[in-house]
Design brief:
Layout: H1 3-17, E1 21-24, E2 48-53, H2 60-69, H3 74-79, E3 82-85, E4 103-104, E5 114-117, H4 120-130, H5 133-144, H6 150-158, H7 165-175
Parallel strand pairs: 1-5, 2-3
Antiparallel strand pairs: 1-2, 4-5
Length: about 190
């Protein structure tokens, strides 16, 4: 998925929900911090975006978005991309303080969306917590491309609360396989 495609999807989602404050929490959240041309192919391979709304306690907005522009919808068939309407709690392993670190795009005053995206290190911790092969490949690609700072990623993972101690330990174990050394981030 490219930024322009994601912007189109977000505008449609905001129109459907009648809410400008949209949050991208899945892998496509990386497009909030980096242009697709700077990212490794594994980081932009998905054709779906996990979209949540900051105010959606009963999940109505997410359900409406999924029903209208979700997988197998006419929007999906026409554009080759789709939204998965999710609730914020879908991302179980976000480090404390993630809301204060959200990133956003510059907006035009006429834009119907005020998109927010997970900061790349918070996104990576959530992906490592999910621990699916595609998530591990996603984080590995970002680390190999030096788009994440390894020590910052370790610090964020260490912030996970004790209720997630086994997941936190698994993430830190995964990260221990990467050599220490200079890492830089473009975010």
């Amino acid at each position: 998925m490219k930024r322009l495609e994601l912007a189109h999807l977000l505008r449609a989602a905001c129109d459907i929900a009648g809410d400008r404050e949209v949050l991208v929490i899945g892998s496509q959240s990386i497009l909030g911090a980096f242009d697709e041309d700077d990212l490794p192919p594994a980081a932009t391979a998905s054709i779906e975006a996990d979209i949540a709304f900051l105010e959606d306690p009963d999940r109505t907005k997410a359900d409406d978005v999924e029903a209208i522009i979700g997988e197998m919808s006419s929007f999906h068939q026409m554009n080759g991309i789709y939204a998965e309407g999710v609730h914020i709690e879908t991302a179980l392993y976000l480090p404390p303080g993630w809301r204060e670190r959200l990133v956003s795009w510059p907006l035009q005053s006429s834009d119907p969306a005020e998109p927010r995206f997970l900061e790349p290190h918070d996104l990576a911790v959530a992906k490592l917590g999910a621990h699916r092969p595609k998530d591990l490949e996603f984080v590995d690609a970002l680390l190999q491309a030096r788009m994440l700072v390894l020590e910052e990623l370790r610090s964020r993972a260490a912030l996970l609360p004790d209720e997630h101690a086994p997941t936190r330990d698994r993430i830190l174990g995964f990260l221990s396989s990467y050599p220490r050394g200079p890492q830089r981030s473009r975010a």
